Amino acid sequence: MVQNDVLKKYFGYESFRPGQDKLVESILSGRDTLGVMPTGAGKSLCYQIPALMMEGITIVISPLISLMQDQVGSLVQSGIRAAYINSSLTMNQLYTVIRNAENGVYKLIYVAPERLDTELFVNFAMKANISMITVDEAHCISQWGQDFRPSYLNIPKFAASLPVRPVMTAFTATATQRVRDDITKLLELRDPFSLVTGFDRKNLYFEVRRPTDKNADLKKLISAYDKEGRSGIVYCSTRKNVEDVCQKLNDMGFSAARYHAGLSEEERRKNQEDFIFDRVRIMVATNAFGMGIDKSNVTFVIHYNMPKDVESYYQEAGRAGRDGSPSDCVLLYSGRDVVTAEFLIKKSYEESEQEPETAEETRRRDLKRLRDMTFYCTCGDCLRGYILKYFGEKAPPECGSCSVCCSDSAESDITVEAQKIISCVYRAGQRYGVKTICDILRGSSSEKLTRSGLDKISTYGIMTDTSEKRIRRIEERLETMGYIKRTEGEYPVLTVDNSALEVLRGNVTVRARIPEDRESAKKQKETMVYAADPKLMDILKKLRQKIAAAQGVPAYFIFTDSTLADMCRKRPRTNSEFLDVSGVGSAKLERYGDEFMAAIKEYCENAPAAEPTVKKAPVNRLKTPEERKRGFEGILKGIGSFTPTDEAVHITALLSSIITAAGENISPANLRSVVYEWLISKGYLKMCTDLDGSERKGITEHSADIGIFESEVTASSGKKYTRVLYSTQAQRFIADSMGEIGGFAAAHL
Q1: Of 43, 178, 374, 698, which one's alpha carbon is 20 to 30 angstroms from that of 633?
Q2: By the 8 A CB rule, do 675 and 740 touch?
Q3: Beta bridge partners of 649
Q4: What pLDDT shows up at residue 613?
């Protein structure tokens, strides 16, 4: 059985995501393999499919009980024989699993790294046919990563002790080059095939807000998400913040639970289950609520406080949108977050049992990471691009899907303002912090300035007309660029880098995007969400919940939201049609196909055919030919990310998808007439009369050449009309022709 057949049979997908097939092929060839894939990119499939195709057992080393239970539960639902061995099992359960494993019942067994040192498991391993050892969350082996686990260091010794060394594989979501090198070295991987698939999660929208009142901002965000019935996580840096935020949300009437290391194990387990089983919609947690969470319908992650490093932030933000649904990642930033993070790093350093030299190196490393995280919040550049560059990946100047790129602020020349700030820092003796520098520039009459004689320096009052907020934003941008530096310690001061001399001399032009009000940054990107029929979706969700409750498993174990949405679109009536739904394999067809198809049939017989609903966000209107030309130019820059749908769509839906993929902020209506005129000029469409006598666009004898066809539609009123639809072929043709269409618009319209 080839890997694509296994993929479809057990997991219900027709094809692999980018990179998955290469990792699977490497493992099946018997080569040690290291895969780095972002959270939600499907790294588990990369070792699960080879495990099913190999003769022996695959041992998966996983750091958390909750993660093991989630993975095994999902595999069992897909008809795969799997089990876990951890401290949650009774002795009788443990012996039963070992006995079944010895008899070849399981293909995958999940264990914690500490289990490798136990006599019972070692005895079993020595007799078993272990074909592969997979190390999940492999960054835990590196002290340069997060969540370092010393027990991970024992894995290579365990592998070497087996009668035959199995294939060694390692997977992680976020790993810098240094961490990847550590993983290879410490796990003793032999000539490994290493693949970093790319860290970009295109379905995630990133936003940094700087609210004056975090609680008020949080309330607005949660209120909007709650109205849509969305589930999400609010991360806080301290236990106290978790308690306060959770209490406030519940007092506001929202359904929230808490999670941090200070709670009893029983409460943590209960609250986690309530969240996973959708009994509460919001989890407020510290980073203790992390790797073990694989809940597929999380559609927002809010960071109430800034995390200590980019790796942690991206991993936590990546809990959203795991099923591919559009999701939000919002960070509420304040300068106090930096102070709190520095305190936590200092505390960890003081309590460390490492040698002083090693502990000091760790402290400096953590402070460097903190500065990188702070720059993410203050740099003013594309947020997605910043993350991708941090992990060593190239990124476009703008992504079109973050609060910076979607704001109405434009890049401007700030050289003069930069010169004033740099000069002020220098003339003040490089001995003061941001607040004092702002006061000098704005001409404050404070006693501190007059007492220190700072009201006498030449830069005093030269930016009286500039707000303190703007001065701070520009200073932060200069710090990101390296022109200004901030000292370490409890009371950091600003200093001037030698490179700033070129700015002062006027030899360098400083350009940057400086939002006036980062709090009010809004998603301005055009979003056209073609949702599933909401009534049918609700019916299928209730059926799913009923089945899940009867089995005592989370609802997403049965089907993810994205799979239910695909059911709504395709409305399968036969087994083959049901198997065509994304995420439906043979096991789930057998278990649930009849019930879901019966529900779909009943709905279709009693309800009219529903048109896709459209949710529109604010858009730019292209009124003039020049504006339309620029619109096409913007589309051409990002058109490479467009992917046609498997279903035929109307022209509006097609153009919306192209615009969204390109990251543009344009109404499809502004382009539709241009595309229509071009198609008519090429002979692919013509003007004709509809069934009701009205004039419309119709097909020609050449339409089929590019995949355009007509379909008769009956509205709920009983009125019949004809729609022109665009197949996958036609969608690709239109996308590939955008350059020519733009030229046509400039020349003829």
Answers
A1: 698
A2: no
A3: 726
A4: 42
| Same domain, residue pair 134 and 232 | no
Residue 574's CATH number: 1.10.150.80
The HSE-up count of residue 111 (CA atoms within 13 Å, CB side) is 27
CB distance 201 to 282 below 8 Å: no
**Of the candidates 527, 525, 414, which has an alpha carbon nearest to the alpha carbon of residue 476?**
414
> Token digits for 730?
């036609």
Count the neighbouring beta carbons within 10 Å of the beta carbon of residue 336.
Answer: 11
Q: How far is CA 748 from CA 136, 744, 745, in A?
A: 58, 6, 5
3-class SS string, 687-729: EEECCCCCEEEEECCCHHHHCEEEEEEECCCCCEEEEEEECHH
The torsion angles phi and psi of 322, rounded to 5 degrees, stand at -70, -20
Q: Distance between the two ends of the chain, CA-based, in angstroms?
A: 56
Name residue, tokens 């008020």.
216
Strand, helix or coil at 8? helix
The enclosing domain of 338 has a CATH number of 3.40.50.300
Same domain (yes/no): 160, 25 = yes
The pLDDT score that the predictor gives to residue 611 is: 45
Nearest alpha carbon to residue 315 among 326, 297, 296, 301? 301
Q: At what angle do helices 214-227 and 239-251 cross, to 10 degrees?
A: 50
Q: How far apart are CA 608 and CA 711, in angstroms?
A: 17
* Degrees, nearest 5: CA angle 290-292-294: 100
Residues of 532-556 as b/e, b for ≥16 C-beta within 10 angstroms?
Answer: bbeebbebbbebbeebbeeeebbbb
Query: Are 596 and 736 in the same domain?
Result: no
* 107, two tokens: 């293909």
465 CB contacts (<8 Å, ≥6 apart)? Answer: none
Spatial distance between the Cα atoms of 468 and 720, rounded to a whole number of angstroms = 62
DSSP 8-state class, residue 9: I
pTM for this structure?
0.63
115: in domain: yes
**Helices 668-681 and 738-748, axial angle in degrees (round to 10):** 90
Cα 263 from chain centroid (whole Å): 28
Tens-digit pLDDT profile for residues 467-507? 888 898 898 889 888 899 888 766 789 999 999 999 998 88
- From CA 432, how far away is CA 454, in angstroms rounded? 11
Residues in the chain where the model's pLDDT stays below 50 = 517-531, 610-623, 715-717
Do the domain assignments include residue 382? yes
Pairing of strands 511-513, 411-413: antiparallel
Pairing of strands 484-486, 494-496: antiparallel
Q: Are strands 204-209 and 57-61 parallel, antiparallel or unpaired?
A: unpaired
Structure-block tokens of residue 82: 């799997």
> Token pair 């030299």 is at which residue?
357
Which domain, by its residues, includes 564?
Answer: 534-606
Q: Identify the burial level of 48 via C-beta atoms within 10 angstroms of its C-beta, where 0-12 means exposed, 13-18 middle and 19 or more buried.
A: buried
Q: Rounded CA gap, 563 and 540, in Å?
A: 10
**548-577 per-position pLDDT tens digit:** 989 988 888 899 888 888 898 889 999 989
Regarding whether 143 and 263 lie in a shared domain, the answer is no
Cα distance between residue 621 and residue 607, in whole Å = 36
Q: Following CA atoms 649, 655, 659, 661 in sequence, which dihedral angle do they give, to the nearest 10 degrees?
A: 30
The confidence score (pLDDT) of residue 663 equals: 67
Q: Mark out the alpha helices in 414-530 (DSSP H runs).
A: 415-427, 434-441, 447-452, 468-481, 500-504
Whole-number Cα distances in Å, 734 to 106, 132, 674: 49, 47, 12
Judge whether 323 and 297 are in contact, CB under 8 Å: yes
CA quadruple 307, 311, 313, 316: dihedral sign: negative
